[in-house]
């Protein structure tokens, strides 16, 4: 019975004053707190110590030396808590912190992955369990996820957001990595209990406990790449994602706690504790995610080990599922809005599916003068043309850009396109529209796709 099944709760916390209020609300709002085992990767400084937890009603049971950190065992209202005590100077990012907590998994029935600044619906534990079990008629491996609605700890529960959201595609990096955003869910269809999604949120996952063993967090993931890499891996391991229609928890999005990049230096040499700079960690995560998606990397990454793709589904199947072609930097139109996966796309031939893609491209346009005229045009227009010579974009240089052209010899801007392949520009032209151009002013134009 669900009423007897345990939940493993994993929380990474970095110098966050909301950690204790989050844990208190989680425990107080649960129907069966004695079924919770909460493991926190507690990255902190002198502003917090274990005595603070005791002052808030947590009972300290024992302290032991673990392989990676000192572990404080606490209890409150029957819930078991383990604090993995890590000085913030030794922190290595969200993937590392989640991984450290996940190593403490001991076979609990369910897994709850969250952040350290939440509030919870009354009986959230029963509601999450029941919803997950109901979804087994749609999927053998359902997973609840999403970016939870927002709350303000100073006014909660007043002002908390009551609508839930879907995670949708937002943009590509020049190399093909995907950024995501949240959009309010449409009303449920008749009889629908959850919205089938395409991506997971790092800050809220409720699943079977075995998810931790299948898709353990990659310790090299460093914030911006976490969600797309986790989504891809989870899907290829056979998991299906569902967004709840009713709020089960809330998230503080304007959290003012210090972040790892506030404390750690750009150069590891500046800090004896830092083995990599913040930039190095971010780039390593970026390169690893490129390799996961089958995209070019700076150097060969041949084996991702346990942090690679699963064997139950392929990367190509995930592209069809979420409507994204990673290496083309293109998406299906229905992936730009909150729509459930289109199962019919799986049966389409590759050429038919590719015909409906919208390509995302950024072009750096540079206008230069090739002479030293006595005067410059007072208006310069740039046009971008597709293969059929249709104008796909126009741009008039601003006053400051004209001044830069006159003073420095060049001006540049960025053109962004979201177009079908046949409408992407293949040629640019520059036009001098006014002014005294009889003095020999000559302009040239260079357009280069941004690819790094």
Description:
It contains eleven helices and 22 strands. With 452 residues, the protein is an alpha+beta fold. The protein has two domains: 2-251, Alpha-Beta Complex (Spore Coat Polysaccharide Biosynthesis Protein SpsA, Chain A), CATH 3.90.550.10; 361-449, no CATH class. The strands form five sheets. The protein has a ten-stranded mixed sheet, with helices on both faces. Strands 15, 16, 17, 20 and 22 form a five-stranded antiparallel sheet that branches. A three-stranded antiparallel sheet has the order 19-18-21, with no helix packed on it. A hairpin with a 5-residue loop joins strand 9 and strand 10. It is globular and about 85 Å long. The mean pLDDT is 92.
The helical percent reads 10-25%
CATH topology of the largest domain: Spore Coat Polysaccharide Biosynthesis Protein SpsA, Chain A
Ranges where pLDDT stays below 50 over 5 or more residues in a row are none
Proportion in β-strands: 25-35%
How many E-type strands? 22
For the biggest β-sheet, the strand order reads 3-4-5-2-1-6-12-8-13-11
* Overall 3D form: globular
- Output the number of helix runs: 11
Task: Report the sheet with the most strands, covering strand number, pairing sense and barrel closure.
Answer: 10 strands, mixed
What is the CATH class name of the largest domain? Alpha Beta
At the fourth CATH level, what is the homologous superfamily of the largest domain? Spore Coat Polysaccharide Biosynthesis Protein SpsA, Chain A
The SS-based structural class is alpha+beta
Number of domains: 2
What is the residue-mean pLDDT, rounded to a whole number? Answer: 92
Rg over C-alpha atoms, rounded to the nearest angstrom: 26 Å
The CATH architecture assignment of the largest domain turns out to be: Alpha-Beta Complex
Q: How far apart, in Å, are the first and last alpha carbons?
A: 53 Å
Pfam family, one: GlcNAc
Protein name: GlcNAc-transferase family protein
InterPro entries: Glycosyltransferase, Nucleotide-diphossugar_trans
């Amino acid at each position: 019975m669900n009423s007897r099944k345990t939940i493993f709760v994993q929380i990474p916390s970095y110098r966050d004053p909301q950690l204790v209020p989050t844990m208190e609300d989680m425990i107080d709002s649960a129907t069966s707190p004695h079924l919770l085992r909460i493991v926190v990767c507690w990255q902190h400084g002198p502003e917090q110590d274990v005595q603070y937890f005791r002052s808030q009603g947590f009972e300290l049971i024992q302290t032991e030396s673990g392989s990676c950190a000192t572990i404080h065992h606490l209890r409150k209202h029957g819930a078991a808590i383990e604090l993995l005590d890590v000085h913030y100077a030794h922190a290595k990012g969200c993937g590392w912190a989640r991984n450290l907590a996940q190593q403490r998994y001991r076979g609990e029935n369910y897994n709850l992955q969250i952040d350290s600044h939440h509030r919870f619906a009354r009986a959230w534990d029963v509601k999450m369990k029941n919803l997950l079990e109901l979804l087994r008629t749609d999927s053998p491996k359902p997973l609840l996820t999403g970016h939870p609605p927002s709350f303000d700890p100073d006014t909660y529960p007043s002002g908390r957001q009551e609508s839930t959201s879907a995670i949708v595609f937002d943009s590509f990096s020049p190399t093909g990595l995907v950024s995501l955003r949240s959009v309010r869910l449409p009303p449920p269809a008749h009889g629908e209990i959850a919205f089938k999604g395409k991506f997971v949120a790092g800050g809220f996952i409720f699943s079977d406990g075995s998810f931790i063993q299948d898709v353990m967090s990659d310790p090299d993931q460093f914030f911006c790449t976490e969600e797309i890499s986790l989504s891809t891996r989870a899907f290829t391991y056979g998991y299906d994602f569902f967004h709840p229609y009713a709020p089960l928890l809330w998230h503080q999005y304007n959290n003012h706690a210090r972040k790892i990049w506030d404390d750690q230096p750009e150069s590891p040499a500046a800090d004896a504790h830092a083995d990599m700079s913040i930039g190095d960690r971010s780039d390593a995560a970026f390169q690893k995610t490129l390799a996961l998606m089958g995209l070019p990397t700076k150097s060969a990454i041949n084996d991702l080990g346990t942090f690679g793709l699963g064997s139950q589904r392929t990367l190509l199947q995930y592209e069809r599922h979420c409507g994204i072609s990673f290496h083309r930097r293109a998406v299906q139109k229905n992936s730009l809005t909150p729509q459930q996966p289109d199962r019919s796309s799986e049966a389409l031939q590759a050429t038919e599916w590719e015909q409906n893609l919208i390509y995302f491209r950024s072009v750096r346009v540079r206008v230069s003068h090739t002479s030293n005229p006595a005067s410059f045009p007072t208006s310069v227009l740039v046009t971008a043309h597709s293969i059929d010579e249709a104008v796909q974009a126009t741009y008039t240089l601003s006053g400051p850009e004209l001044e830069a052209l006159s003073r420095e010899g060049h001006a540049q801007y960025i053109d962004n396109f979201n177009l079908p392949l046949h409408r992407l520009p293949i040629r640019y032209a520059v036009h001098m529209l006014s002014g005294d151009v009889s003095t020999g002013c000559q302009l040239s134009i260079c357009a280069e796709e941004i690819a790094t």
